[in-house]
Amino acid sequence: MNPLLDSLQPYPFEKLRALFKGVTPPAGLPHISFGIGEPKHPTPTLIRDAVVASLDGLASYPATLGSEALRVAIARWVTWRYALPPVDPATQVLPVAGSREALFALAQTVIDPARTAGGEPAIVLCPNPFYQIYEGAALLAGAQPYFANSDPARNFACDYAAIPADIWARTQLLYVCSPGNPTGAVLTLDDWRELFALSDRYGFVIASDECYSEIYFDEAQPPLGALEAAHKLGRGFERLVMLSSLSKRSNVPGMRSGFVAGDAAILKQFLLYRTYHGAALSTVYQTASIAAWSDETHVRENRAKYVQKFSTVTPMLAEVLDVRLPDAAFYLWANVERTGLADDEFARRLYADYNVTVLPGSYLARTAHDANPGRGFIRIALVADVDECTEGARRIVEFCRGLKG
Prior knowledge:
Elements lengths: L11 H9 L11 E2 L11 H9 L14 H14 L11 E4 L2 H12 L12 E6 L4 H8 L3 E8 L5 E2 L6 H6 E7 L11 H14 L2 E5 L16 H7 L7 E6 H5 L7 E5 L1 H14 L5 H11 L3 H22 L12 E5 L7 H12 L1 E2 L1 E2 L16 E5 L4 H19 L1
Parallel strand pairs: 1-11, 3-4, 3-6, 6-7, 7-8
Antiparallel strand pairs: 2-9, 4-5, 8-9, 10-13, 12-13
EC number: 2.6.1.17
Pfam families: Aminotran_1_2
Enzyme class: transferase
């Protein structure tokens, strides 16, 4: 077996199952899950209809490159959404089977484990807390993950200026998540200016994970994207790709449909890798994806539901926890230290007493630079309908007030 598999850590939800082992929550309280970031809003009718209408496509092998019609639809959306010059659907866009698959596969394409600095292994630099796929992708590509801790005093932005020059010299890939999972923080134009300067100096690739980009709270202020930042700063897309998905935007996580866009040279090699990797998107879902990327009405309706939930739940939880509205995404990143409980103990006791699941923040981070930046936090995924989210918040408030009693 590949010995690198032994370096992988248990996924956060495996840790959560172990934490809850032996716990029996109250049978009289229906379970409410704020743990998994899986959208629960109904899939839009236009997408369901497109799936049904294209079922004949099951008789054909899908092309890894995707159909020209899908690439055109994605290129048009990227150009419109980020106010860019026309994006070339032939060279600057590649449909993928969900952003998770692409985030992992990209590291296998980009990393050259034989190219080292001073004999030290290549580095994949990740935010901390982070999406665990980044770490697994780095390890299985033969690289070493290096974590940039988020700082609550900087709106949970990573302090890239604190990373030593010798680490940057070994970095071949930088994962960025904006809006962030789990904090919801969005990188500013100044943040991007700093990262582009570092990429120019050290030659690493930037992969911007933007799967939460369409969940935000002010229609007039969508989150800044990586390609948009590059254009505003007068650059091209050299050493830069962004990844997006329909899962959160259009409530179709089961379709596993997304795309990668940006540097044409990287995408050319990424297509070569994926041709052998065998992760082509079904032609049925390619057709449905065209319908999804071509419509914004359902996306605005989806955002309105999140606005309602966050405006209802956030003030409730702020009475007992240190929490505020994020920049974007559908998570609340709540500090539980005022309850006197550690984040994992909080999660276990909340489940045991009120049958509500939240994810301990320490499970989403690694101890790096003498700190685990997720410790003392919980991630609350507001993915269910407003009534269920409100009831879950009510139970959390009651639980916290019971602790003080």
